[in-house]
Amino acid sequence: MLRTFGEVALLVCLTSGVFGSEEAIPGLSRLGEPFDEGPRLKPWRMEGLGKVDFPITTSDPDAQEWFNQGVALLHVYFYNEAERTFRWVLNLDPDCAMAYWGLSMSTYGKRARRFLDMALERKDKVSERERRWIEAWDARTVPDTPEELTQGIKTRPLREREFTRRLERLLLDYPDDVEFRVFYGHECYRRARRGRYSDDARAPDRLACETVLQQVLEANPDHPGAHHYRVHNWDGPDANVVADSARHLGKIATDSGHALHMPGHIFSGLGMWHEAAIAQDTANRTELAYQRKHNMLPSASWNYRHNRDYLCYVQEQLGMAEEALRGARELSGAAALYREAHSLQRALIKFERWEELLGGDAPPWGDEDLWERIHKTHGRTLAQLNLGDIKKAREEFENFRKLKDEVEKSSRIDQMLYNFQSLQLRARFALAQDEVHLGLRLLTEAAEEEAKFRERVNDPPKDQHFLYNALGWEYLARRSPELAARAFEKTLKTIRNDGFALAGLVEAYIGMEERDKAQNGYSRLLHVWSRADPGLKWLKRAKAAAEKAGLDPTPKDVSPATQRTYDPSKLASVGPNEWQPNPAPELEAIDSEGKSVALDDYRGKTLVLVFAVSADCESCLSGLAKLAEKTEELEKKKAVVLAVTPDKPELLAKVKAEHKLPFVLLSDPQWKSGRRFKSYDEFEEMRLNSTLLIDAEGGVHWAKYGGKPYEDINKLLEMIDRVNRYGQSRKEKSSMRTAVRGAARPTRQ
C-alpha cells in the first residue's frame, strides 16, 4: 500500500555475479581493485575533439583509433570519458601498456599509481619510445619511501626535475613526435603557472611553453591540447595573446564542455563579458545535454561544477542578478551532490542581498573546512553590518577572529584571504561608528591585499565585489569624486569593463565635471549591462545621473574585438540551461509472492538502489543487516527499504523470514532492470554492486557503482537528507510558479 506523498523509499537492488566463477569475490572486478571504480559502460565515437595521433604498439588497429580518442579526451580534461575509452582499448588489446598509462592519466591518487604500475609491468612489450615515455611518468609519481615520509623529506621537486629532464631527452631524441611536445607544453604551463603563484624562480617561463605549443600547431593546426594549454598559459592580464586559440578551441572541440568553457576565461580577461557568457553558457548546456543524453550524473564530470560557477560569475558581471542567483542555487543543490556555496555567497554579497545571505536559503557552508568557515563567518558579519545590527555583527566577527590561530598554521592562500577580509570587516566597523579616516584607510589596505589575492585565485573569483569598488562608493557617499574615480579606475585595470566600476565612474566624472570621460563610461556601461536586470540599483543611479547631465544613451563597445550580444534564449538548441535529475528507467521485478512491482508503485517517494551479489550470500546479508540496523533512522526520514535480486521469489521469502529483514525483497531473474539502471559492467560482462538514489518524482540523484557501495550507510542517510531538501525546495518553487500564474490570470466577469 502506498504511503503519503513526500515519503522516501529506499530501494536496495542486490545483484549477483555467478557463484563458482573465477572471481575471487563475486561482484568485484576480475582485473583488480582499481577496476572496481570508474565508468563501466562502453564508450562511443566522439567527433568533436580535434585531431590527435599518438602511435602506440598494439595488436589491434581499432585499438589505435580508440587510444587516439582517449588522448584527445585527456587534452580537453574530459577524464571520465577518457577512462572509459582507455578501458575499451584494453578490451581490444588486453596487454596494451599504453592503455594502462592512459588510465593512470585519467584518474588520480592510488588508482592512478596502480594503473601506472600495470603499464610498467608491460613495458618490455612496447617500443623503446613508449617504454621511455612510461618510465618518465613513473619517475614523476614514484611514491615517497617510509624513511622520506618519516624524516619529512620533500622529494616532489626532485621528482619533477627528473621527470622534466626525461621529457626533454625524449623531445631531443624524437623531434618529430607531436604528442611528446604537447605533453611537454602542458607540463611547462603547469609549472609556469605554479611558479607564478608561488614566486618560484626555477619555474619555466611562459614564452618557453608558447614556443613549444606553436611548434605543435605548425604541424597540427587543430590539435586540441596545444590550443587548450596555450589558453591556460596566458589566462590572465595577457589574455589577448591567445584570443585566436580561444576561438579556435571552441570550434574544433565541440564535444567537450571544458573546451567550450575555456574561451570564456580569455573573453573574461579581456572584459568581453557578452562573448564570455556565450562561451560559458554554451559549455554549461553542452555538459547538461551530455548528462541527459547518456544518463550521466554531475559527479561523473567536474566540468559541470566549474562551468556553472564561471557562468554565474559572468552573469554577475553582466548585471544579470536573478539569473546568476538562480544558477548559484542550482549548483548548491544540484543532485544533492555538492555543498557548493561560493557562487551563491559571491552573488548575494555583490548584489547586497543581505537578508537572503542570513536566511533559510543561505549559502550551504560546512564547518569542517577552514576555507569554508572563513567565508561563512566573513559573509555573516558583513551581512549583519549592512543590516545595521552591530551587536550581532560583533558576535559573528568574534567567530571570524577565533579562526586566526588556525589560519596562521594553514596555507599562504588561506592567510591572504583571511587578511584582506579581516581588514575589510574592521573597516566596516569603523565606518559604522563614524571613524571615517580609519575606516577608509583600512578599506584601502583591504583593497590592495584583495588585488594581490585575486592574482592567485581567479578561476573564477571566490570573493565578492572587488573592494576598490567598495572604496569608490564610499568616496562618492562622502562627496569625493576625484578619489572615487581613482578607486574605480583601479578596478578597471584588474577587471576590464567591470559594470559596477563603470557605473561609479559615471557619477564620479559628472561630479568632477569631466563630461567626455563621463560619456565614455556611460556608453561602455550601457553596452556591458545591456542585458542587466532593469531594477539593478547601480544602473538606475548611473542612468539618473547621466540623464540629469544630458549624456547620450547610446551603448558603445570598447572591447578588443567585436562581440555578439548574450541572449540565453538563442542557445536553447545547444541543451538545457538548468540541471534536473534524469528520469529513472523502468523497474520490472516481482515480490516474494510473485506480484509485479514497478517504480510507479512508489511515486511520491525517493528510491535508493544498492546492487550486490545475492540475497543468500554472506557479504550481501552483511549489507542488508547494516541497513536493517538503521531502520529507525530510515523511518524518521520516511524511508522504505526494498531489495531486488536475481534470486527466485521463494528464496527471497525464506531469507526475509530467517534474517528478519524489515523490508520487501524483489526478484529480477533476467537482470533486465539491473542493466537499465547501469548496474552492469559492459567491459567484463558482469553484474555490479551499485547504489542509486531516486527522488520522489522519479529522478536519479546519486549513484555509486562497483565494490561494496551499500556499506557506507551514513553517506546514504546524508544523501537522503539532501534529496529531501531538494524535493521540498522543488515543491516550494512549483507552488510559487502556480501562485504567480494564478495571480496573472484575468478574473472572469
Account of the 3D structure:
There is one protein chain. The protein is mostly helical and 749 residues long. Helix content is 57%, strand content 6%. A five-stranded mixed sheet has the order 1-6-7-3-4. A four-stranded antiparallel sheet has the order 2-11-10-5, covered by helices on one side. Helix 23 runs parallel beside helix 25 (499-511). The radius of gyration is 29 Å and the shape is globular.
> What is the CA–CA distance across the termini?
45 Å
Rg, alpha carbons: 29 Å
Structural class: mainly alpha
CATH topology of the largest domain: Glutaredoxin
Q: Largest beta sheet, briefly?
A: 5 strands, mixed
> What is the name of the CATH superfamily of the largest domain?
Glutaredoxin
How would the global form be characterised?
globular
* Fraction in helix: 55-70%
Strand content: 5-15%
Query: Architecture of the largest domain in CATH?
Result: 3-Layer(aba) Sandwich
**Order of strands across the widest beta sheet?**
1-6-7-3-4
Question: In total, how many domains does the architecture comprise?
Answer: 5
Question: What's the number of helices?
Answer: 32
* Overall pLDDT level: 88
Number of DSSP strands?
Answer: 11
Stretches where pLDDT is under 50 for at least 5 consecutive residues are 1-9, 14-23, 197-202, 744-749
* CATH C-level class of the largest domain: Alpha Beta
Q: Summary?
A:
This protein has 749 residues and is mainly alpha-helical.
Helix/strand layout:
Layout: E1 8-13, H1 61-75, H2 79-92, H3 97-106, H4 109-121, H5 128-141, H6 146-151, H7 156-173, H8 178-198, H9 206-219, H10 224-234, H11 243-252, H12 257-269, H13 273-293, H14 303-317, H15 321-333, H16 342-350, H17 354-358, H18 370-386, H19 390-401, H20 404-408, H21 412-432, H22 436-456, H23 467-477, H24 481-494, H25 499-511, H26 515-528, H27 537-549, E2 582-583, E3 589-591, E4 596-597, E5 607-610, H28 618-629, H29 631-636, E6 639-645, H30 649-659, E7 664-667, H31 672-676, E8 680-681, E9 686-687, E10 690-694, E11 699-705, H32 713-744
Parallel strand pairs: 1-6, 6-7
Antiparallel strand pairs: 2-11, 3-4, 3-7, 5-10, 8-9, 10-11
